[in-house]
Design a protein that fits this description.
Layout (H helix, E strand, L loop, with lengths): L4 H12 L1 H13 L6 H20 L5 H24 L3 H26 L6 H25 L3 E4 L2 E5 L3 H5 L1
Antiparallel strand pairs: 1-2
Helix pairs in contact: 1-3, 1-6, 2-3, 2-6, 3-5, 4-5
């Protein structure tokens, strides 16, 4: 099935807001609120991407087969590890969270590959400029306001992107 150019572009635009969502998630954690906005957004993006990939279909070329094998193998290995090690529910939830993250980043290039005829170079340039602008703004605004966390004393200012990791 051929996806419309607009559907492909909307999916990629939805995904490119990750820096903004990560920044908001870190900001809420910085303020002392427990926030799962990043996890919920990541899960929504993962299922959207999975839906769009399945909707487009597979042609079983070498890249298709490689991606499907990679995706299935990481999920099966994680399941085997959980069963073999007898992990508890919290370990399983942590593993699933990491699997969704990994699968998502495997799925993005595959989605782009699948829909390469629908994506123009100028759209790609605008998309990367948006992502870059979001990251730069997410670093500069907290820095200029003097809020956020630093990875090193006096250097390596990260704003709110690493807030969850630093807080733990």
């Amino acid at each position: 099935m051929v996806l419309s150019k607009k559907a492909v572009q909307i999916t990629l635009l939805f995904i490119c807001f990750f820096p903004v969502i990560d920044w908001l998630n870190g900001f809420f954690i910085y303020l002392g609120f427990s926030s799962s906005i990043g996890s919920m957004y990541r899960l929504a993006c993962f299922f959207l991407l999975l839906f769009m990939i399945i909707r487009k279909g597979f042609y079983f070329r070498s890249y298709d087969v490689f991606t499907i094998l990679l995706f299935c193998s990481i999920w099966l290995l994680s399941l085997a590890q959980t069963i073999t090690l007898g992990n508890d529910q919290s370990s399983l939830a942590y593993d699933l969270s990491n699997l969704v993250k990994l699968s998502f980043w495997i799925g993005i290039p595959y989605f782009v590959y699948q829909n390469k005829e629908q994506i123009t170079a100028s759209f790609f340039e605008r998309l990367f400029m948006m992502i870059s602008s979001f990251f730069v703004s997410g670093l500069l605004v907290p820095y200029l306001l003097g809020i956020g966390k630093s990875t090193y004393v006096g250097a390596g200012f990260k704003g709110f992107f690493l807030q969850r990791m630093i807080q733990q």
